[in-house]
Amino acid sequence: MTSDDTVRPGHPRSIETLAALSPEQTEAVLGLLDEAARTDGQQAVSEQGRLQLRGGERAGVSHLLLTADGELVGYAQLEDTDEVEPPAAELVVHPGHRGHGHGRALGSALLAASGKRLRVWAHGGHSAARHLAQVLGLTLFRELRQMRRPLTGFDAPEPVLPEGVTVRAFVPGRDDAAWLAVNAAAFAHHPEQGSLTQRDLDDRKAEPWFDPAGFFLAFRGDELVGFHWTKVHAEEGLGEVYVVGVAPDAQGGGLGKSLTTIGLRHLAGQGLPTAMLYVDADNKAAVSVYERLGFSTHEVDLMYRTET
């Protein structure tokens, strides 16, 4: 969420809500997101949200296009797929069109569309976004930390796996169903990660960054019990601990830490200078593990929500 809340006259606008975007609309939104990212220093819409711009209609997902004087100047995405939590949203206003109340208009439209049950991400936690959340009557609900550590000279020893566990690379098609099942079980408490579907996995497999050689699966016999999926951000020179998951009945034995180290060794071997990851601030156990591995907080994303 990157925007403002100051209303100024003389800037006629309209908001159109769509279930799917045309290719031309998608490219216009992506261009808007890129312009905002250059100004703000990070994307205002998550990877999942950007993937959902393409590929037609998706259940529970809607797109809000804000135009002023016939030009696209704002975008919001609303996802209502969680059976328990309120709908989640992300929004952005073009940097050259801030200060005209467009963010407040998008926020108000999201509140109306969600029946005033809403969660909104503010990536980077900028002060303008925090103020807009306050104006919309939202309160801070969740803090997601981006943590980083240098990889230059990374010399962690070969990790010791639990007895009977072996690790190999993901094989697209062959391992899809098993991975989806373990991911759902490992992240049953996590509304975004735990709900990934085959379509979501296929979206990521089709991305230029996807590399099965950096997607590590841990097996006990024929049973998948954990994984570490890494990701390379080539332009930024970053290697990401994209997601580490361990099946519930295999947790507590050090497998997650071993898988994390395997992935970091892989990223360091690619010559990447820095590793990054995302972790919820209230997941004290995971934060502690990552801190012991040399990670420290780089920036935070904040989620705000209506009072429930």
Helix content: 25-40%
The helix tally amounts to 8
Q: Describe the biggest sheet?
A: 12 strands, mixed
Low-confidence stretches: 3-8
**What general form does the structure show?**
globular
pLDDT averaged residue by residue? 92
Strand arrangement in the largest pleated sheet? 1-2-3-4-5-12-6-11-10-9-8-7
- Rg over CA atoms, rounded to whole Å, is 20 Å
Structural class: alpha+beta
Order of helices and strands: EHHEEEHEHEEHHEEEHEHE
Question: What would you note in describing this structure?
Answer:
- The chain has 308 residues and is α+β, with helices and mostly antiparallel strands.
- 28% of the residues lie in helices and 30% in strands.
- Mean pLDDT is 92; it is low at 3-8.
- The chain has a 12-stranded mixed β-sheet, sandwiched between helices.
- It has helices spanning 23-40, 47-51, 102-113, 127-135, 176-186, 198-205, 255-269, 284-292, and strands spanning 13-18, 61-68, 71-79, 88-93, 119-122, 139-150, 165-169, 215-220, 223-233, 238-246, 274-280, 296-305.
- The longest helix is centred in the first third of the chain and has 18 residues, at 23-40.
Question: How would you summarize the topology of this molecule?
Answer:
Layout: E1 13-18, H1 23-40, H2 47-51, E2 61-68, E3 71-79, E4 88-93, H3 102-113, E5 119-122, H4 127-135, E6 139-150, E7 165-169, H5 176-186, H6 198-205, E8 215-220, E9 223-233, E10 238-246, H7 255-269, E11 274-280, H8 284-292, E12 296-305
Parallel strand pairs: 4-5, 10-11
Antiparallel strand pairs: 1-2, 2-3, 3-4, 5-12, 6-11, 6-12, 7-8, 8-9, 9-10
